Amino acid sequence: MILKYKRFLRRYSVILMWTCITLLILNLFAKKNPLTIDRDQLSVKIQHFMGTGNLPTSGVLSVRCSESELFLESLYDVNCTAILQGEVNEIKRSQLLKVQRKAVIPNDSFYIEATQNCEQFIWNRKYLTFTLSRREEQFPIAYSIVIHQKIDLFERLLRTLYAPQNIYCVHVDNKSPAAFKTAVRSIVSCFPNVFVAGKLENMIYGSWLRVQADLNCMEELLARHLTWKYFINLCGMDFPIKTNLEIVNQLEHLAGGNSLESGAVVDGKELRWKYSLKIINGEMINTMVIKEPFSNETSIFSGSAYMVVSRQFVEYIFKDSKVKQLIEWLKDTYSPDELIWATLQRMPGVPGSKPPHPKYDVSDMNSVARLVKWQHLEGDVTKGKAYPLCTGSHLRCVCVYGAGDLNWILQQHHLFANKFDAEVDPVALQCLEQHIRQKTLGCRM
Question: What number is the average pLDDT over the span 18-31?
Answer without folding.
Answer: 48
